[in-house]
Each structure stands twice: as structure tokens, then as C-alpha cells.
Write a structure and sequence with these properties.
12 strands; 10-stranded mixed sheet; alpha+beta; two-stranded antiparallel sheet; single chain
Length: 396
């Protein structure tokens, strides 16, 4: 079986939903920008050499509908001969596309595939659409947890497994501090493809104005001035009376896109490309829907068993920070040391556009492994509906 390697990965900066710089930018435009930026990383790869484009999207509706994978590649200027597909495994959609691309390459079906993801929570997420009319009535009665919001499941995890509010806030503060440090060091610079956009800005008199051709070249969600005292003042969102999940210890609504080019190792060598890293395996697992945040505790051991490794062999674990409660539970059960877990912070501070996060984390972990001299990294996350996903990557 052939080896699959990552040869390029680029993403847009992440912007706050609704109030951020991408509040007028379509998701297909964001994805197209990421695709073009990834291709620019490897000029030896011709546009017509791309054999498929797989784009993850957690909410493939509205401007993310009509098969955003196909729409985005055409918007990026790829020839009409290049096919595209949209993939939805909620928060792990971006990682799923990379695994699917790697698997097709490993069995000889293709040489070069783009994986990635996109989400515009600003333009797509609409609570008016989240009505009971969308629910399967039998499933809603027999397994009601399948339709709980992610925040509600985070509260269940916190209460069921004794994750205190104080521990959640401390973890959230660490995430903010780590992202701020990474930004100061320029560690995200290799990941980000700056983009010019028009954005809507609220004026002092309450009216909205449009700023044109604004250059967005860094992530906007981080709050480096965060303090424990400030976090402690925030009110619980999902259980106002006895809850512990707040806007401060949960991932932020944000918009963005990422594209990752996966290639057969022999093809990359023939083109003289140095891989960012090797794809070494992928696993998914199911858990009870009402505690979907614990998915990594099933997916990571399943992955390590498959490849014959232990956590001691892993240098970095990028565990998506959907909520501090589920990260802390997974960390405790998997026994991940603090210095291996999310060394550059995570979605609590950087943002979480559902469909693109997995692809962002792959590019980020490969760049950071190379930067620090590490070899193996795991990208893992919980998944809405009660699942976990985990992928293993190696940097030579």
C-alpha cells in the first residue's frame, strides 16, 4: 500500500462570527481562497493534476449548500474537470476529508487530492431553522440526546464527571495565554493566508457601515487580556441556575476555511516536494449522544491500538477545545501531560468554524512538530451526535 503525505496546508485567519471581518464574506469564497493559497505553496502541482476536492462543512446549507466543495473549487479557478464533494461529520469534517483523501491515495485510486473545510456561522447558522420539524420524532423520543445542543452536552459532561467551573476557567485562561504567545512568536504565520474582504462595522450611532478591501492577516478571536477574575464573572449559558459552561470556557463562534493537499509519497518525490508530514492512520468511535464531548477517549485508544503505539510515543496531541469541560475529562482519562496538549492553544481562544477546524489542526500540528523537533502528533476531537475522531501524523 502506498504512503500518503501532506504537502501543503493553508487557512484563512479566523474571524469572530457576526461581528468579525468575515461577516460579509461567503463561505465558498473563503474556501476558494484557502484552496488557491495551498496550491501556491506547491507551484509544481498543476491545477488539472487535482483529482478531487473534499470540503468539510458542519452546516452545509444556505450559502454553504449546493455542494460547497464543488462550488469552492470552481470559484478557486480549478478546471471543470476537477470534481468536488462536501463532507459532514460535524466538528471533525475537516479531518475526515484528509483521512478520506489519504485512504484513496493509499489504495491507488488517486495521486493528488485536496481536503479541507469551511464554515461561516455568520451567514449560515440560524436558530429559526433549528426547530422540532427537523427532528426525527421516533429518535427524538428514544434517544433525545442526539438533538441536544453541544453546550447542553458539555454541561452534562461537567456534571456527570465532576469537572469544576474553576478548572474549566483555568483551562480556558491557559488556552488564551498559549494562543497569545503563539501569535507573539509568529507561529501561526506559516498557517495563515491573508485575505482582503469587505466587512460590516457598527458605528457609534448604531448604524452599519461597510469597510472595503480590509486586509485580514491574523486571527481575531483571541482575548489576551483574559483573567480568571473576568472568567469567573461570566454567567453559565446552558444552565443558568446550576451550570458551569460559559462563553469564556467554550469555543467561540467564528468563520474561516482551510485547505490541505494530500499526495502520494512517490508522486511528491517525483515533483521534488518535501512533505510537511505523513498520514499514519485514522479512527472514529461512537459514544452516547448526550455526552458527545468525550468522543476522543474512545477514538484515540482505538487509533493507538491500530498502529501499535502508546501515548508515550506521541509528541503533541491537538484535542479540539469545543468546551473546557470535555477537554479536561478527555485529558484526565487519556492521561495526556499538559505540555503535550494543545501547546499553541485551541478553539476556546482561536475560534471553531466547525467544518474547517480539523484541517486547521492538521496544518498547525505538522508545522509545530517540525518547529519543535517532534515526530508524531494526534489530531482528535469530539463530534456532535456522540462521536470521536482521531488522526495520526508523522514528521520525519
Amino acid at each position: 500500500m502506498r504512503e500518503a503525505v501532506v504537502v501543503a496546508s493553508k487557512r484563512t485567519p479566523l474571524a469572530k462570527s457576526y461581528r468579525g471581518s468575515f461577516n460579509m464574506t461567503r463561505p465558498d469564497d473563503l474556501a476558494a481562497h484557502a484552496i488557491r493559497a495551498a496550491l501556491a505553496q506547491v507551484p509544481a502541482v498543476a491545477d488539472d493534476a487535482i483529482e478531487d476536492v473534499l470540503i468539510g462543512c458542519g452546516l452545509p446549507e444556505g450559502p454553504s449548500g449546493h455542494n460547497v466543495g464543488r462550488i469552492a473549487l470552481l470559484r478557486a479557478g480549478l478546471p471543470t474537470s476537477v470534481p468536488g464533494v462536501t463532507v459532514n461529520r460535524f466538528c471533525s469534517s475537516g479531518l475526515q476529508t484528509i483521512a478520506m483523501a489519504a485512504h484513496r491515495i493509499m489504495v491507488g485510486e488517486a495521486d493528488t487530492i485536496i481536503g479541507g473545510g469551511v464554515e461561516s456561522i455568520t451567514l449560515v447558522q440560524n436558530d429559526k431553522l433549528r426547530t422540532s420539524d427537523l427532528f426525527n420524532p421516533v429518535l427524538a423520543k428514544e434517544i433525545p440526546g442526539i438533538y441536544l445542543s453541544m453546550g447542553e452536552t458539555a454541561e452534562i459532561v461537567a456534571k456527570r464527571y465532576g469537572i469544576s467551573r474553576e478548572d474549566q476557567d483555568r483551562y480556558a485562561l491557559m488556552s488564551q495565554q498559549r494562543v497569545a504567545h503563539a501569535q507573539e512568536q509568529g507561529w501561526f504565520d506559516d498557517d495563515i493566508a491573508p485575505i482582503k474582504v469587505d466587512r460590516a462595522v457598527k458605528q457609534e450611532d448604531g448604524t452599519m457601515a461597510v469597510e472595503e478591501d480590509v486586509l485580514v492577516d491574523r486571527d481575531e478571536c483571541n482575548r489576551p487580556d483574559t483573567t480568571l477574575e473576568g472568567l469567573a464573572k461570566l454567567k453559565p449559558v446552558f444552565d443558568p441556575e446550576a451550570g458551569s459552561v460559559t462563553a469564556g470556557n467554550a469555543s467561540q463562534f467564528s468563520d474561516g476555511a482551510s485547505a490541505t493537499i494530500v499526495m502520494a509519497a512517490d508522486r511528491a518525490a517525483a515533483l521534488g516536494l518535501e512533505p510537511m508530514g505523513w498520514f499514519r492512520g485514522f479512527q472514529v468511535a461512537g459514544v452516547d449522544p448526550d455526552e458527545m464531548g468525550i468522543g476522543p477517549v474512545r477514538a484515540v485508544p482505538k487509533l493507538l491500538d491500530m498502529v501499535g503505539m502508546t501515548l508515550d510515543d506521541i509528541d503533541i496531541v491537538e484535542l479540539n477545545e469545543a468546551f473546557a469541560s470535555q477537554v479536561l475529562y478527555c485529558q484526565r482519562i487519556l492521561e495526556i501531560p499538559d505540555d503535550k496538549l494543545n501547546p499553541m492553544g485551541g478553539s476556546i481562544s482561536i475560534g471553531h468554524p466547525y467544518g474547517m477546524t480539523g484541517s486547521r489542526m492538521v496544518g498547525q500540528i505538522l508545522n509545530h512538530l517540525k518547529r519543535t523537533g517532534g515526530r508524531f502528533g494526534i489530531v482528535t476531537m469530539c463530534v456532535g451526535g456522540g462521536m470521536g475522531a482521531a488522526g495520526l501524523f508523522e514528521v520525519a
